[in-house]
Design brief:
Blueprint lengths: L2 H8 L3 H5 L5 H6 L2 H22 L11 H16 L6 E4 L15 H11 L7 E2 L4 E2 L4 H11 L3 E5 L2 H13 L3 E5 L5 E2 L3 E2 H7 L3 E5 L7 H7 L4 E7 L15 H11 L2 E8 L16 H6 L4 E5 L10 E5 L1 H9 L1 H5 L4 H13 L3 H7 L1 H7 L2 H17 L4 E13 L2 E16 L4 H10 L3 E7 L2 E5 L8 H11 L7
Parallel strand pairs: 1-15, 5-8, 5-9, 9-10, 10-11
Antiparallel strand pairs: 2-3, 4-12, 6-7, 11-12, 13-14, 14-16, 15-16
Helix pairs in contact: 4-5, 6-15, 7-15, 8-13, 16-17
The structure holds pyridoxal-5'-phosphate.
The site of pyridoxal-5'-phosphate (PLP) has 16 residues, from α8 and β10.
């Protein structure tokens, strides 16, 4: 008998491996089927290695039940590790879409906790004990904050746009400027959303310039909506021109058309005092007379993922009654977080100090420099195995908002001595929490603007774990 056959015969049975001490703790956490299958996968893999690579590919020790149990345990522990886990965002991009956009205020977290753990007034009118509307919890707040007559909230802004368009313009035309046929990351494109909603797109103007008369000439029997879309994530510069919301409103009134504006990012407070370029607030757009305004909950508003629709009462009611509204309805945890976030805006000063995204915008440059200096010093003292440098940096808003806005900032640039920057970044991605920073100029740029002050210490520990201090000798 060849040695290989001998080894193949030595492969233990699944039951034998399952009795190993190594797997007893996991048996408490995983069903017996899942555990047995994991062991089977290890055994099958050894068998394949033996058949393809021969006896030299596998040692006798590898075939011991205890060795197979250990290999299985490593695999199973991965299964128990959360995949969606916490990240320290040291990228300098505040609304990083891949990292979950806006972090929530403590008040929003408490509201989620209160509502999630038990029962709530979600759809009960507490005045009469009868059935109520879930979005009623935020409607009057949204009306007060934006000056709108009525409001509705759904799952996200893409859903809000689709729902509003289809409820108000199905089988009819919406006129949109060619300069506003926006694509948002994740395959949200205005023309495709309109098609999905059964609304016919009537493009007018050119990429860089659209005039009021372009809209006027396109109006026909079929027209239902004049749609304006905020070019959130790009800017057309140079010889440009577009039609203001107020001009569209006047035209809409004249022809009895609905004027709708997709604002993308929903600003409830003017951010120009933060040194950011001016963006229209939702209130300004409502005041200009736009009938229906849609925006996101988790962009500049700093709340949870949600789609907010505010505007004329009759239109909001019509949208709320559409069958798609049920399919896109907001869940109670999101609603709790949204309500708590909106309440903070009742006092703009409070919003500024409690809504994390606003606090990050407002962070003082000198303060940022000081924090980065402390980080730099710590890493230096610990003798981290890297060349480090305190550098001037720029932070960004991200999340497809304010693409041209850059906030002056500081960062610590790290050039590791013994591993590549890509390897360092990969190590940091694997920790819990993971640390994500930017690779630039062959260094890892650690920017603290989107890092909570409470995380500074942990951030140092993660960097030191990834690049242990160098031995002075
Ligand atoms: C971000 C954005 C959307 C999509 O909003 P979500 O909340 O991400 O679904 C739609 N339109 C515009 C103009 C946007 O900026």
């Amino acid at each position: 008998m060849s040695e290989r056959q001998n080894l193949l015969r030595n492969l233990p049975a699944v039951d034998r491996v399952l009795r190993e001490e190594e797997l007893q703790e996991l048996a408490e956490l995983l069903s017996s089927d899942i555990l047995a299958e994991a062991v089977q996968i290890q055994i099958d893999s050894l068998r394949r290695q033996l058949i393809s690579g021969g006896a030299s590919a596998v040692s006798l020790a590898d075939l011991e039940p205890v060795a197979i149990a250990q290999a299985t345990a490593i695999h199973c522990r991965d299964l128990l590790k959360p995949s969606l886990r916490k990240v320290i965002n040291a990228t300098g991009t505040l609304l990083h879409t891949n990292l979950g956009r806006a972090p929530l205020a403590p008040q929003a977290l408490r509201a989620i906790n209160d509502v999630a753990a038990g029962y709530s007034t979600l759809e009960m009118d507490m005045n009469n004990g009868k059935r109520g509307e879930r979005f009623s919890h935020v409607e009057s707040l949204l009306c007060r904050l934006t000056g709108a007559e009525a409001a509705l909230v759904v799952n996200n802004n893409a859903g809000a746009v689709l729902l509003a368009l289809t409820a108000l313009g199905r089988d009819r035309e919406a006129i949109v400027s060619r300069g506003e046929l926006v694509e948002i990351g994740g395959a949200f494109r205005i023309p495709e959303v309109m098609e999905a909603g059964g609304v016919l797109l009537r493009e007018v103007g050119s990429t860089n310039r659209t005039h009021l008369h372009d809209y006027t000439q396109a109006i026909c029997e079929q027209t239902a909506i004049l749609l304006k879309v905020h070019t959130s994530n790009y800017r057309i510069v140079g010889f440009t021109g577009d039609v203001s919301s107020a001009e569209l409103v006047a035209l809409g009134r004249e022809h009895q058309l609905i004027v709708m504006e997709d604002l993308g990012s929903g600003l409830l407070t003017d951010l120009s005092s933060y040194g950011l370029c001016p963006e229209p607030t939702v209130g300004e757009v409502v005041r200009s007379g736009v009938d229906v305004v849609t925006f996101s909950g988790d962009k500049l508003l700093g709340g949870p993922q949600a789609g907010l629709i505010v505007g004329r009462k009759d239109l909001i009611r019509k949208i709320a009654k559409h069958p798609l509204a049920r399919a896109l309805r907001i869940d109670k945890l999101t609603l709790a977080a949204l309500e708590a976030t909106l309440r903070l805006y009742l006092q703009p000063r409070r919003a500024r100090s409690e809504v994390p995204i606003l606090t990050m915008f407002a962070a003082d440059l000198q303060q940022q420099k000081k924090r980065c200096g402390v980080l730099y010093q710590r890493l230096l003292e610990e003798g981290i195995a890297a060349e480090i440098e305190l550098v001037e940096d720029l932070s960004r808003v991200g999340g497809g908002a304010m693409p041209l806005t850059e906030l002056a900032d500081w960062a610590v640039a790290i050039r590791p001595h013994h591993v590549s920057v890509a390897d360092l970044a990969a190590r940091l991605r694997n920790y819990t929490p993971a640390l994500i920073a930017r690779i630039h100029d062959d260094a890892l740029w650690v920017n603290l603007r989107a890092v909570f002050a409470l995380e500074d210490c942990l951030l140092v520990q993660l960097l030191l774990a990834a690049l242990p201090g160098e031995d002075p000798c």
